[in-house]
Amino acid sequence: MRRRFPAVAITLLLGAALAAAGCGFGPGSEIGEVSLTVTRDYGTQRVQPVGGDEVSESDTVMRVLERAADIATRYSGGFVQAIDGLEADERFGRSFDWFFYVDGVESPVGAADFALRDGDAIWWDYRDWSAAQRVPAVVGSWPRPLLGGYEGRSHPVALECRGAGEACRAVRRRLGEAGVVPAAAPSDDAIRVLVGPWARLRDDPAAAQLERGPQASGVFADFAQHAGDYRLRGLDEGGEPARGFGPGAGLVAATRRFDSPPVWLVSGATARGALAAAGLLDAAHLRDHYAVATEGGTETPLPLR
């Protein structure tokens, strides 16, 4: 039988809750607004319309999601099992699960432990992670983290140009339009934006991860040697080559090496390709994408499906 509580008991409980809130155990003061995006299959389908939520000091990524969606959790409520009925699963030897990013960076902690700041962009995506268990950074929340930093604090942005002057000028202009002002000098805590043809970027330790596949870089693209040069290749969800691009193709992607700040790549097989990639640096082209290739004025979200 369902127990019923007398009205006086309810009043006492309500009073205790209000007292606790006044002593600092309540929701805390408001800190601003965050955005919430929920998609599936590497951002190709929206599970929910993009929304916003006013958040307080006590809010976490999990609380924001709970207010917006019907969810199921696991591991004592620390991790998400299902959102709106779409549940973590294993099918045909492939693993599917929910992953979340805040400001375009994969979280190092669970959703129930991730505190929020004003302006944070939260992105949940349900995907097959058989080819890449870890995708440390994505470009789909542009201009974040380049604007505002990540993981609770701001970071400078270092623009590094390598052999693509026109592309670098275009990237600097796009950053400025987004409110991002690159630092005058590089630093260890800077988010780096590398601009140039792949032959000039591939000696960078973070960029070089692309040549070891998505399991290392989290990027479903690489550059294959071709007649003494390089050509951009798009990979499918299994990490296998699915499409070759021409010499004028460009790529915008993000990766991260160990715990170092994210590194954005604006590159191509040639300087012309890097310039084409620079033209993708806006929300219209990057929104909800892990990485994007472009050729002949047509964008191609990655991975290929």
In short:
By secondary structure, the chain is of the alpha+beta class. It is 20% helix and 35% strand. The model is unreliable at 1-25 (pLDDT under 50).
Write a structural description:
The chain has 305 residues and is α+β, with helices and mostly antiparallel strands. The protein has two domains: 99 residues, Beta Complex (Ferric Hydroxamate Uptake Protein, Chain A, domain 1), CATH 2.170.130; 146 residues, Chitobiase, domain 2, CATH 3.30.379. It contains seven helices and 18 strands. Strands 1, 2, 6, 7, 8 and 9 form a six-stranded mixed sheet that branches. The protein has a six-stranded mixed sheet with strand order 10-11-16-15-17-18. It has a three-stranded antiparallel sheet with strand order 3-4-5, with helices on one face. The longest helix is centred in the first third of the chain and has 19 residues. The N terminus is likely disordered.
Write the layout of secondary structure elements.
Blueprint: H1 7-25, E1 30-40, E2 45-56, H2 61-68, E3 71-74, E4 79-83, E5 86-87, E6 89-91, E7 94-102, E8 105-106, E9 121-128, E10 157-161, H3 165-177, E11 191-197, H4 198-201, H5 214-217, E12 221-226, E13 229-235, E14 241-244, E15 250-255, E16 263-268, H6 271-278, H7 283-286, E17 291-295, E18 298-302
Parallel strand pairs: 1-9, 10-11, 11-16
Antiparallel strand pairs: 1-2, 3-4, 4-5, 6-7, 7-8, 7-9, 12-13, 13-14, 15-16, 15-17, 17-18
Q: Which parts are unreliable, with pLDDT below 50 for 5 consecutive residues or more?
A: 1-25
Tell me what portion of residues adopts beta-strand conformation. Answer: 35-45%
Average pLDDT over all residues: 90
Structural category: alpha+beta
Please identify, by name, the CATH architecture of the largest domain: 2-Layer Sandwich
Q: Encode the helix/strand succession as letters.
A: HEEHEEEEEEEEHEHHEEEEEHHEE
What is the 3D shape? globular
Number of helices: 7
Computed CA radius of gyration, to the nearest angstrom: 22 Å
Query: What gap, in angstroms, lies between the N and C termini?
Result: 53 Å
CATH class of the largest domain: Alpha Beta
The number of distinct β-strands equals 18
What kind of sheet is the major sheet? Answer: 6 strands, mixed
Number of domains: 2
Helix-residue proportion: 10-25%
Q: How is the CATH topology of the largest domain named? A: Chitobiase, domain 2
